[in-house]
Amino acid sequence: MANNNAAVVEIAQTAGRFTSSIVLQAENKYIDVKSILGLFTTLVSSESYELHVHGPDAEEAKAAVSEAFAKHGLKVQVVEE
């Protein structure tokens, strides 16, 4: 299991570099990936995540945030819309 504190901080900081809206869907919850608190309560309880990214730098954001998840052993699926 990943060190959740490090994962949460790195994922939120990575997301914060982009102007795009980056939303994590975990079961029926939607969490702003830039919110450290939202991530803390979510990354622990769910195992499958979907990433919804919209905005001018969406492609770069998808790649960077997915990489941050993977680095900490968290599985995330980017939803292409």
Keywords:
about 80 residues, alpha+beta, globular
Number of helices: 3
Radius of gyration: 11 Å
CATH top-level class: Alpha Beta
Note the main sheet.
4 strands, mixed
Gross CATH architecture: 2-Layer Sandwich
Q: Could you say what the CATH topology is called?
A: Histidine-containing Protein, Chain: A
Q: Which spans of ≥5 residues are poorly predicted at pLDDT below 50?
A: none
Structural class by sheet pairing and helices: alpha+beta
Average of pLDDT: 90
Main-sheet strand order equals 2-1-3-4
**Secondary-structure element pattern, one letter each:** HEEHEHE
Question: What's the CATH H-level homologous superfamily?
Answer: HPr-like
Number of domains: 1
Whole-Å distance between the termini? 30 Å
The tally of strands reads 4
Please estimate the helix content: 40-55%
Overall 3D geometry? Answer: globular
Domain HPr: 10-70
InterPro entries: HPr-like (IPR000032), HPr-like_sf (IPR035895)
Organism: Paenibacillus zeisoli
Protein name: HPr family phosphocarrier protein
Give the gist of this structure.
Residues 10-70 form the HPr domain. This protein has 81 residues and is α+β, with helices and mostly antiparallel strands. The protein has helices at residues 4-16, 36-43, 58-71, and strands spanning 21-26, 29-32, 49-54, 76-78.
